Description:
TIM Barrel, alpha/beta, 6-stranded parallel β-sheet, 8-stranded parallel β-sheet
Amino acid sequence: MANVLSSNVGYPRIGEKREWKKVLEKFWNGDITEEGLLKETKALRLDGLRKQQEKGIDLIPVGDFTLYDHVLDTSMMFGVVPKRFQHNGTNSSLETYFAIARGTKQAVASEMTKWFNTNYHYIVPEFDDVNPILVENRPLTFYKEAKEELGIEGKPVILGPFTFLKLGKGIEDFPGLLKTFLPLYIQVLQELKEAGVKWVQLDEPIFGTNLTDADLVLIEQVYESIAQAVPGINIIVQTYFETIDFYKEIVQLPVAGIGLDFIHGDTLQSLRQNGFPKDKVLAAGVIDGRNVWRADLEKKLDLLATIQQFVDKERIIVQPSSSLLHVPVTKKTEEALDPIIKAALSFADEKLEEVVTLAKGLKDGKESIVVELEDSHHAIQALNDSTYRKKSADQIDANELSAERALPFAERIAIQKEILQLPLLPTTTIGSLPQTAEVRKQRLKWRKGELSNQEYEQYIQTETKKWIQIQEEIGLDVLVHGEFERTDMVEYFGEKLNGFQITQFGWVQSYGSRCVKPPVIFGEVSFTQAMTVKESVYAQSLTNKQVKGMLTGPVTILNWSFVRDDIARFDVLNQIAVALRKEIEELEKNDITIIQVDEPALREGLPLKRDQWETYLHAAVHAFKLATASVKNSTQIHTHMCYSSFGDIFEAISALDADVISIETSRSHGELISTFEENIYDKEIGLGVYDIHSPRVPSKAEIKENINRALQTIPAKQFWVNPDCGLKTRKERETIAALKIMVEAAKEVREAQLASVK
């Protein structure tokens, strides 16, 4: 009987309980040596490989583990180190690696941005004046480790050449640079072949975006060159996140296999229309690598049966649609979950079991996995039939609500300026303030029942009062309460809205050691009670300055949650917007007159295909306006966004009709400002003037330069001064120092601006 292989595309790095994060931060804090870091992370890496081996995965990925980011790993492998980090004649040290990612006192970290349309962030390669060399064959190192330590014949994973270069910046001659890197990729593959590697996975997710004819020519040249230089090596060109452009041409590349995503986009339609080559294997991504819902195995087996009409069974590899780094490690530790919800979930380890089950079912027939088929069907049906997914009688219909403010911006802003009486270039922060180890300790004690609700609330108020005083002493114009009561900007709201489930260990990596715990949207979303009013009102009572109410917006809550997949995604979005609308109205009733509704994930959710952008942006804008439109004209609505190709969504951001927007931009300040040189923005805006992702404290000259650069394009009367993101992860001392410098810089620029008009 024909064999059917199971495979995995990538496995989470963080450990079941974020052991990876903890050891990294111990190293950064100087609590362990480099040797200790490497020893502990190796143990984690081997544990992940061992689990995949025990699950029965045939093709286990190696080289997908990282100490920070897999794109940065690729840069370091090829000696792509920005000049500001080159020192002592070496570009490969761990010190250099982390300096690029996190910055130093002397050098700004490399830009960090979203990995396609996910909430994972990668470090952007800088190719200015680069002279690449193969510093170390990382995939070979990890292949040998897996084989020697565990007897695993691993599948080395490498970020493909076309995607790697497309993700970078500072490229003047893309074809020329590709030609420069090609021999290095060939060398890596030759060494892998000589070591006896049977399968290699070259990740090319860029193929799921809109490619050009010129791109296709280069892709074909690259893979023809590899095929000629390294004949006989079994390469799988792995794509994910979308249906690939130029399907007919890409599947004909001279490689042994093509990995396709059958979850996102419509790859099945491409297969039906164009077939599949008889001389290749198809690595079929039929298990969703980006969501946490259990697969209906019978439907998946039917999907594989359809695929089998075009590809012989023995040439099908069953696998997830993408790396599993986008989902939590295992649900076995989720002991507090409602059994109905838990049974319907599938995290990374459970998805591997689904892959192995489907491979067995495809190989031996449905009758070989009858129990598994029935279990998956019953678990899904039980949740669908539960009261969780039934609308309540008092649930508000989004279609019955207006999504328009009473007055246009030009008239609203005049009213707001008269009431708020803020200075030119007002200063503020984005929202969160440092959450120290003590804050986290007190929250943990409260969750364990070691602190009463009253004791915990008193502690939060003490922290809030301390930081209101600090902000006043620093001289900020608009204050924040600090969000000390919040674990995460999405999880916090997930704990308080109907239809959300919070997990205990459902962590995923966002960037570096930063992990987030996305809530699971499993049912109908609705408002139950005020979520932020108590803390905002208390903070406002402590000062005569304005304190912003702080909410996470509907688009970000949607994009940073695991969303139910039984109804339309935009229907869930509107349910969230209606719930937030109620919260905003409660804040306004309690005299909070500046309310910030953050949407850092708006750009992130943009589809990879441009022809789908309009639909998404229309839905996103409508949801934001639905949440914010009912306030008075005198109430000032702010929003915040993380930088990511701002020009792509300029019109949509204006259409949000927020009175003030702040944007994360310090790592790519000039690039963003160029967008404003090409477009007119008529509302108020704050461009982040220093980078909070790095522990370095900026100089006053640096901040003034960023402000003045922006004022060449944006009128001073529209401009706010703020850090580029929340300060939750920063230490208190560096935060206070940076904010003092920011306020001083703003005052000096303000005085210069006022003097110039006298």
